[in-house]
Design goal:
The protein is of the alpha/beta class. The protein is built from eleven helices and eight strands. Strands 1-2-3-4-5-6-7-8 form an eight-stranded parallel β-barrel, surrounded by eight helices. Helix 1 packs parallel to helix 3 and helix 8 packs parallel to helix 9. The termini are far apart. It binds SN-glycerol-3-phosphate.
């Protein structure tokens, strides 16, 4: 399983990248708004993330009609070679995905909530499919179950994207709210989890690690004083 950071915050991205386990970043309009991002700064901001991260960086189209999504996608992909264009899982998004992928632009189909949506995203040529967990939990449904169904269904086929590279379609578990979400996604075989910085921090923490380290330090102190 690979880990992406789900944020537009440069400090978080720099810090997480320094840990050596970061494979990519996903952003969306809400995450950019959360850091107080301004429209004019957006292209430069995405470029900066692409410089920091050695891996795919998802930047989202903010259009709803296919021609506009395609225009957004071309502009975003021109910012850096590792940009992946995020497109909503709608009819217009599917059509735009097919056009972009045929042009060699990698697409991450987002806001995916069902197996039929995921299957269509794969058939339209998407490189990544992003089912959301937490948004299901928010409406008192089991998001992990839904993502599990999508992982199983996509895994039943050898889907590749529609770019000339024919790269394997990968599932990005998104809207991740806890380290346990990550555990469960790994057990069900999701290719990638995109996580907020706070969840990434929690993933590395364990009280027995802290206690064990403390004991090693104390014992080493005794060795030095022996
Ligand atoms: O990657 C999508 C993600 O940012 C949505 O997360 O917590 O807003 O549901 P959340």
């Amino acid at each position: 399983m690979k880990f992406f950071l789900d944020t537009a915050d440069l400090n978080e991205i720099e810090e997480a990248a320094s840990w050596g386990a970061l494979a990519g970043v996903t952003t969306n309009p809400s995450l950019y708004a959360r850091i107080g991002g301004k429209l004019a700064d957006f292209p430069g901001h995405i470029k900066r993330i692409c410089e920091i991260v050695d891996g795919p960086v998802s930047a989202e189209s903010v259009s709803t009609q296919r021609d506009d999504i395609v225009r957004d996608g071309r502009e975003l992909s021109a910012l850096a070679p590792n940009v992946v264009v995020k497109v909503p899982t709608t009819i217009e998004g599917l059509a735009a995905t097919r056009t972009l992928a045929d042009e060699g632009i990698r697409v991450n189909m987002t806001l995916c909530f069902s197996v039929p949506q995921a299957l269509l995203a794969a058939r339209a040529g998407a490189r990544y499919i992003s089912p959301f967990i937490g948004r299901y939990d928010d409406i008192s449904e089991d998001g992990l179950d839904r993502v599990g169904d999508i992982v199983t269904a996509i895994g039943n086929y050898d889907f590749t994207d529609a770019t000339a590279n024919h790269e394997k379609v990968e599932i990005i578990a998104a809207s991740v709210r806890s380290a346990n979400h990550v555990t469960q996604c790994a057990l069900m075989g999701a290719d990638i989890a995109t996580v907020p910085f706070g969840v990434l921090q929690k993933m590395v923490q364990h009280p027995l690690t802290d206690r064990g380290l403390e004991r090693f330090m104390q014992d080493w102190e005794k060795v030095q004083n022996a």
